[in-house]
């Protein structure tokens, strides 16, 4: 009877969110009982369901009489516990001669509620026969009603010894070939998906779900909705789109109407679509010229039995030779054999505080959910695990990193005051706060591990230069590593100028080292670093080459650190003995997300711009205004300015949707739109030397227009550029668009950011309009995080991003919850030595081998 109970759970959660004021329903929870009881009784199929209903009705009636929020909080907690099975009903008193039921019997009863895989095969069947004989679980409506969101639990879990914990976790490392009828060839196919062990299989989550409980007929489709449909293929044809670009048109019919599915960049699918075949298609409904259509929907051939199961069916990532049916069968088998024995490494106290379900239940429901609410509950638990474990791991890494002493780098107030007075500008209050944080860290014998986060143009380089000067004042060496040679050169110019202005700055030897540094000069720099005559070196990955040896590296600064691999960052740090580390990023990251991804770092924020910098004028435009934009760019070029034109794709074949691409548009712009101007092309597929040459040509004024992809997001400073035109702006996140905007307005000239969008979505246009209203990158990042999730921000930390398979970083509440719980556990027991933390410690140890350097 999921419906009535799910409704009640939602009301109780709303009551939680509103502060237990008995306002979740009009008239209080007691007034809700009548209608709810009727629905619940109709759905109850077993005696124990009626016992639960009786309990809840009494609790709801009593709720109105509670005198305080604390009493109501306890009541809501108890009701949710009863519904989820975490709290068991009081047992009636029994005569002493009657023994209580055994735990094993109770667990057997609980297990009877679980769906049972109907597969029964002979050992000699081959793989294809196994697939054909697969029988799905019985229809959800015919299964015993699952009224609990958690498997039944009898009291607290028994504490496990380290040996028992290790044995349970080791079971997850069982080779996947141990599963029934997984031979060498099947194991090889699974291996291509990264599935080597049973644990890998259990934690390979569906990429989407086909919802056979909410199927829509074509006559009920609404544009803008994302739905799943079942239909027959009526016609398949190859057609030409705009600019002669081919696409595949598949006309589907379901008896109530037709729908056109359009596939760009996938002409090879024509061989797979056969007239009369039934397919399942999932995608966003669109309307074009009064025709209902989907663009590049996800699809698969129909397994007819799913029409009769009325279930939510998982769709997994596949590989050649591995069908969807086989993958579901294997997952069923793995769950049946191993899910119940998966050790739950989250401490009981964490589960109690968060109200999250047990791990084994979550795994069952994320793979074969009984309802959408159960699926969401399961995903929350598994997403929480990813966030929580990552937080614990980075805090442990911080402890290890700081356990060895560093070199204190202290400076007197008088020296710092003279240095600040010598600067050609005054630090903003935010810059001063960041400098104070860094100075305080450097003065300790614990190595600094700090993130300096600042918006575009906020003045991070000035703060970094002062940190470098503090290291040199202490007789030490310092290094600054940037991701591109042009950015390293910009830093070298700016930092050298700032250091020269400081007291004694003329004595500081600052050198630039990149891949293009001539060999004689490179050898000279190598020797200077080894003997200590080079005090500051600024460069690219050339800094971490084998020939680079420092005499006494005490401070390592990494700019735009997410652009470096884990090994590269670790290599720079390894050039010194426990040097202080400062990492910088210009990517605005919401504070909660930053504290999650960078939990091992202290955070300094520069959240204001230096005075006098003019904001960039931003406009959201429609395609019909494109010619006017071109005329405006010509006018700016006539004044001696330069312009960027950014596209989301490198080439048209990059994306499955139709849209403009940099390579094709560069040719069109050069020949037809701006034939009398000097244009350059820049994209990520070019060799590093090619990219550097183009950026140098644009920075020097040799090129007037730079046609590019997102590769120009950071690392190019052209004060003369005054126009940033972004095509298909709806395809970028707000934070990324803000980074593009930051490439202009860096000089004295009035500057403009023009966003052309072809989307009909009012929501997307409203999102883009936020760029017109604010220049606060952190505010935009917060909006983007809440609207689109963290996908656009995940690149900020490669080692963190790859662990968030469920991408629930889109849920700020869950991020904050995981953050709070991890810090609570870590503060209470840093080494995780208590018995209740043994499984968690074992789990973290198992993950540590895959993680590498996460700082």
Class based on secondary structure composition and strand pairing? alpha/beta
Q: What do the pLDDT scores average to?
A: 80
Q: Helical segment tally? A: 30
Oligomer classification: single chain
Unreliable segments of 5+ consecutive residues: 92-155, 654-658, 792-802, 851-855
C-alpha geometry: globular
* % residues in beta strands: 5-15%
Strands of the widest sheet, in order across it, are 6-7-4-3-2-5-8
The biggest beta sheet reads:
7 strands, mixed
Radius of gyration: 31 Å
Question: How many individual β-strands?
Answer: 22
Distance between the termini: 48 Å
State the helicity in percent bands.
Answer: 40-55%
Short description, anyone?
The chain is an alpha/beta fold.
Describe this structure in words.
Residues 92-155, 654-658, 792-802 and 851-855 have low confidence and may be disordered. With 855 residues, the chain is of the alpha/beta class. The protein is globular. A hairpin with a 4-residue loop joins strand 3 and strand 4 (258-264). Helix 7 crosses helix 30, helix 14 crosses helix 29 (812-828) and helix 21 (591-597) packs across helix 29. The strands form 4 sheets. A 7-stranded mixed β-sheet has the order 6-7-4-3-2-5-8, with no helix packed on it. It has a 7-stranded parallel β-sheet with strand order 12-13-11-14-15-10-16, sandwiched between helices. It has a 6-stranded parallel β-sheet with strand order 17-22-21-18-20-19, sandwiched between helices.
């Amino acid at each position: 009877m999921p419906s009535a109970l799910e409704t009640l759970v939602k009301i109780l959660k709303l009551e939680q969110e509103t502060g237990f004021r008995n306002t979740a329903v009009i008239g209080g929870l007691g007034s809700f009982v009548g209608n709810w009881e009727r629905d619940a009784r109709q759905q109850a199929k077993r005696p124990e369901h009626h016992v639960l209903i009786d309990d809840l009705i009494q609790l709801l009636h009593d709720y109105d009489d509670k005198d305080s929020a604390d009493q109501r909080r306890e009541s809501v907690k108890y009701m949710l516990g009863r519904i989820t099975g975490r709290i068991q009903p009081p047992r009636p008193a029994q005569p002493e001669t009657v023994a209580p039921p055994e735990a094993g019997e109770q667990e057997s009863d609980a297990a009877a509620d679980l769906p049972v895989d109907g597969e029964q095969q002979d050992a000699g069947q081959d793989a294809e026969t196994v697939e054909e004989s697969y029988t799905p679980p019985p229809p959800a409506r015919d299964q015993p009603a699952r009224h609990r969101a958690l498997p039944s639990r009898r009291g607290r879990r028994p504490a496990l010894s380290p040996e028992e914990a290790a044995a349970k976790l080791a079971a997850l490392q069982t080779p996947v070939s141990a599963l029934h009828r997984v031979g060498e060839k099947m194991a090889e196919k699974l291996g291509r998906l990264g599935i080597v062990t049973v644990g890998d299989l259990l934690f390979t989550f569906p990429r989407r779900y086909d919802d056979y409980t909410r199927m829509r007929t074509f006559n009920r489709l609404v544009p803008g909705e994302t739905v799943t449909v079942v239909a027959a293929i009526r016609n398949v044809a190859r057609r030409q789109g705009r600019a002669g670009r081919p696409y595949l048109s598949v006309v589907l019919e379901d008896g109530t109407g037709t729908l056109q599915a359009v596939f760009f960049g996938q002409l090879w699918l024509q061989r797979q679509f056969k007239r009369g075949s039934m397919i399942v298609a999932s995608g966003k409904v669109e309307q074009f010229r009064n025709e209902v259509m989907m663009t590049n929907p996800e699809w698969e051939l129909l397994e007819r039995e799913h029409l009769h199961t009325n279930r939510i069916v998982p769709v997994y990532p596949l590989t050649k030779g591995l069908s969807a049916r086989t993958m579901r069968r294997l997952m069923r088998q793995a769950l049946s054999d191993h899910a119940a024995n998966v050790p739950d490494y989250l401490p009981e106290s964490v589960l109690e505080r968060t109200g999250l379900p047990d791990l084994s239940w979550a795994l069952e429901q994320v793979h074969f959910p009984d309802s959408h609410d159960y699926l969401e509950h399961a995903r929350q638990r598994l997403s929480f695990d990813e966030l929580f474990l990552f937080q614990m791991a980075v805090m442990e890494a911080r402890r290890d990193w700081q356990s060895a002493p560093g070199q204190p780098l202290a400076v007197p107030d008088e020296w710092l005051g003279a240095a600040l007075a010598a600067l050609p500008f005054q630090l903003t209050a935010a810059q001063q706060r960041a400098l104070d944080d860094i100075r305080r860290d450097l003065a300790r014998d614990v190595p600094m591990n700090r993130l300096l986060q600042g918006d575009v143009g906020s003045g991070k380089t000035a703060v970094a230069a002062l940190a470098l000067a503090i290291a040199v004042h202490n007789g030490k060496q310092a290094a600054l590593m940037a991701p591109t040679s042009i950015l390293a050169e910009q830093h070298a110019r700016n930092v050298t100028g700032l250091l020269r202005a400081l007291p004694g700055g003329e004595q500081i030897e600052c050198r630039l080292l990149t891949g293009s540094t001539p060999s004689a000069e490179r050898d000279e720099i190598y020797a200077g670093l080894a003997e200590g005559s080079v005090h500051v070196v600024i460069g690219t990955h050339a800094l971490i080459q084998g020939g680079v040896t420092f005499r006494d590296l005490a401070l390592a600064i990494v700019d735009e650190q997410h652009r470096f691999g884990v090994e590269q960052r670790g290599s720079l740090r390894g050039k010194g003995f426990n040097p202080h580390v400062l990492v910088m990023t210009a990517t605005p990251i919401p504070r909660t997300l930053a504290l999650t991804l960078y939990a091992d770092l202290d955070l300094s924020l520069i959240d204001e711009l230096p005075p006098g910098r003019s904001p960039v004028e931003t406009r959201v435009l429609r395609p019909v205004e494109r010619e006017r934009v071109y005329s405006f760019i010509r006018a700016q070029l006539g004044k001696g300015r330069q312009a960027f034109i950014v596209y989301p794709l490198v080439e048209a074949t990059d994306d499955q949707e139709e849209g403009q691409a940099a390579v094709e548009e560069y040719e069109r712009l050069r020949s037809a739109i701006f034939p009398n101007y000097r244009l350059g092309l820049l994209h990520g597929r070019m060799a590093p030397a090619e990219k550097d040459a183009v950026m140098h040509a644009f920075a020097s004024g040799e090129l007037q227009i730079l046609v590019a992809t997102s590769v120009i997001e950071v690392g190019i400073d052209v004060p003369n550029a005054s126009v940033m035109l972004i095509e298909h702006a709806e395809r970028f996140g707000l934070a990324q668009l803000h980074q593009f905007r930051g490439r202009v307005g860096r000089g004295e000239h009035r500057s403009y950011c023009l966003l052309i969008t072809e989307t009909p979505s009012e929501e997307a246009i409203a999102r883009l309009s936020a760029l017109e209203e604010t220049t606060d990158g952190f505010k935009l990042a917060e909006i983007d995080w809440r609207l689109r999730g963290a996908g656009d921000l995940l690149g900020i930390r490669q080692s963190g991003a790859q662990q968030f398979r469920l991408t629930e970083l889109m849920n700020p509440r869950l991020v904050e919850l995981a953050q709070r719980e991890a810090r609570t556990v870590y503060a209470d027991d840093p080494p995780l030595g208590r018995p209740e933390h043994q499984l968690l410690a074992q789990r973290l140890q198992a993950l540590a081998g895959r993680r590498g350097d996460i700082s």
